Amino acid sequence: NNKLLMIPGPIEFEPEVLRAMSLKTSSHVAPDFIEIFGNSLELMRTIWKSPTGQPFIVTGTGTLAMDMAAANLIEQDDKVLVISTGYFGKRFNDIMDRYGAKTTILEAPVGEIVSLKTIENELQNKQYKALTITHVDTSTGVRVDPKPIAKLAQKYNCLSILDGVCSVAGEEIRQDEWGLDMVLTGSQKAIGVPPGLALLMASEKAMQTWKNRKTPVGSYYADWSNWFTIMKAYEERRPSYFGTPPVNLIVALETSLKIILKEGMDMRVERHCKLAEAFRTGLAKMGLKFLPDSAANSANTLTAAYYPDGIDGSALLSKLSHKDVVVAGGLLSELKTSYFRVGHMGSVSPNDLIAVLGALERTLLELGHDIEAGKSIAAFQHELLRSN
Ligand code: PMP
After folding, report:
1. What is the pTM of this model?
2. Which residues bind substrate per the record (predicted)?
3. Ligand 1 neighbour 59 (Cβ under 6 A)
4. Which of 121, 220, 251, 273 is at a distance of 20 to 30 A from 15, taking alpha carbons?
5. Does the Cβ of 165 fall within 6 Å of ligand 1?
6. End of a domain among 239, 263, 287?
7. Range of the structural domain that residue 333 is part of
8. Do 89 and 213 fall within a single domain?
């Protein structure tokens, strides 16, 4: 299987990261591994731009990271405002519900964002304990600007929780400067490590909120009482144990975090931005229309585009896969068969995106769509040359 994996996670991983995965598994209390774990926690602070944050690395997926945020910060009947731009906003609402929160969900129409005015009106209406933001909703490709929302949250003394599963290490995030209380992700997207790690960064205020709880955390596995001491021990380079860490994944994580920081976060965000814009310039030349209602609301980490009129989506996906390019179908139940998604994050290169455009052009021509071969690639090239 040598197909180019261009779904919005898991992504194509650096060979060096995959090699790190395959090294001999060591003890989780071996000095070398303790150093790797401790270093990974420190590198996370640089990537999240959160020198004062408390990082957590836990076995699980992005959903566990969301679950942990809810389990530790929320108590029965706390009010939570969920700002939703798609499927993953609704998931946060369900998770908050499960921990007894009284949630209010502000749902944007597909492709749009919730206005700051609407959010502020709601914050004035009730004293919310926390609000959640999906930075990039992977179901729609919509990106929200977390900065002004975090500011509003501070103004109304409410915690801000950012689902950064499809954004951390791909989109701009300045956790401390923006005042975000929780920024969480999974390993398999722009962090560039195979699936299996939940990564979280809690602000001092979030940690204080957890410490001041009146009731116990309603999940044994997710409880920070178990994990906080473990993270502290690894940072202090001491052996410790709660649940056996996924040794190979963490060795791979340290490798990937170093690769990310070698590029530098600012450069990395800029690269994602230029590639995303050039890619969409190319797609537009094929007559494709996008789910997000504007360029400003479009993610740099993936693109969600409608199939052209008269084109059968499942035929398109299967033909693309036969050309060794794998992209993802739709995720929103109401629109599932009318759009597809292409991930472009992590170590993605212009060559990868040219391969996608080329395979897509041939596929659309085979399906009878009236386009000119090579035009989208030319547009991509020109846009990239212009922006670089
Ligand atoms: N939030 C967002 C924005 C996501 O894209 C995803 C995964 N696609 C999740 C949460 C859930 O992550 P996981 O599938 O790793 O549980």
Report:
1. 0.98
2. 341
3. no
4. 273
5. yes
6. 263
7. 265-387
8. yes
- What CA–CA distance (Å, rounded) separates 165 from 88? 10
The rounded Å distance from CA 10 to ligand 1 centre is 10
Residue type, 185: T
Same domain assignment for residues 81 and 105: yes
103, β-bridge pairs: 80
- Number of structural domains (the chain) is 2
d(CA 367, CA 349): 27
**Interval 262-320: pLDDT, tens:** 999 999 999 999 999 999 999 999 999 999 999 999 999 999 999 999 999 999 999 99
The reply to whether 9 falls in a domain is: no
pLDDT value of residue 1: 81
Tell me: do 59 and 69 sit in the same domain.
yes
Calculate the alpha carbon distances from 191 to 11, 53, 100, 278, 330 in Å: 10, 18, 31, 22, 23
106 CA distance to ligand 1 centroid (A)? 19
Q: Is the CB of 196 under 6 A from ligand 1?
A: no
Query: Has 362 been labeled as part of a binding site?
Result: no
Q: How far is the CA of 266 from the centre of ligand 1 (A)?
A: 24
178 lies in the same domain as 123: yes
Q: Per residue in 148-195, pLDDT tens?
A: 999 999 999 999 999 999 999 999 999 999 999 999 999 999 999 999
